[in-house]
């Protein structure tokens, strides 16, 4: 029996089938496989739709239906795509007809409210960072990393959206507020990879996570330099641009930086080491199988705001994060504290990496 559920097209075979349904040449749809602002959905029963995310005249995002076959604007999969993009409207390119994306509901579980608001916050941050990109450096942070106008603009844009969750929101850009014992909390890195952003060297990202009992149970990381988005939640899996992902063994290890005053050591479990300068993206690369593992064990450590969003996606994808003592990593609502850990596809790989870098 044909599968009636619309899913993101991720292979050339699926793309060719969708092209036939839409009466378009496959080359016209090929960008949807690589461009984060395009999304091609299809099912096993003859329906298909091509969507594009774009900016409306008022600076909000909208999901535009470019081509469709058997898919109404209000189709749940179209709405879900618009929500994941942080859009306010769904529009039909040919007719101009538009429908509003449903506002987030207060009668659904906290995780679901967080996922929708996180997507909207990421979209607001995109605009805020773009408008602040020509601003100069203000000063250095306590850890020596640069602080620029874009950091503050991104913080304000994110918190304005996330405040309606009704839980404490911690941010790299503010002193920590109080979090009661047992209370869930949100932690934001408005602009991870500020040094990259200031230099114009990708990647840089917006990262946010919902943490409960020390475990990041949902998270989103938006690569602001490319448009890619990773999102995941406990029990719901993880996705990159709508496509399910999972970690896998490999030979590349990513690290946040070179050890102070020392050289980068390639662990015996790897063939190569990569440094991107953006921890949130690094952890997503492990989650989606692009990299085999990540660690900061022999470095100065990371902050909870750097790691929480990517960790949520890694755990949702089935990966693990262990402390140098080999224990599961738990997060505390303290953005000033340093944490050390390894991230890997499974427990055995994490322990092998720990043994190699100690």
Structure summarized in a few sentences:
It is built from nine helices and 20 strands.
What's the SSE blueprint?
Layout: E1 7-8, H1 12-22, H2 26-29, E2 38-42, E3 48-55, E4 61-69, H3 76-84, E5 89-92, E6 98-100, H4 110-132, E7 137-140, E8 146-148, H5 149-162, E9 169-171, E10 185-192, H6 194-199, E11 205-212, E12 215-223, E13 229-233, E14 237-240, E15 243-245, E16 252-255, E17 272-275, H7 279-287, E18 293-295, H8 304-317, E19 320-322, E20 342-344, H9 347-357
Parallel strand pairs: 4-5, 9-10, 16-17, 16-18
Antiparallel strand pairs: 1-2, 2-3, 3-4, 5-6, 7-8, 10-11, 11-12, 12-13, 13-14, 14-15, 18-20, 19-20
Helix pairs in contact: 4-5, 7-8
What would you say this structure looks like, in words?
With 358 residues, the protein is an alpha+beta fold. The protein is 28% helix and 27% strand. It contains 9 helices and 20 strands. A 7-stranded mixed sheet has the order 9-10-11-12-13-14-15, sandwiched between helices. Strand 4, helix 3 and strand 5 form a beta-alpha-beta unit. Helix 4 packs antiparallel against helix 5. The longest helix has 23 residues. The mean pLDDT is 91.
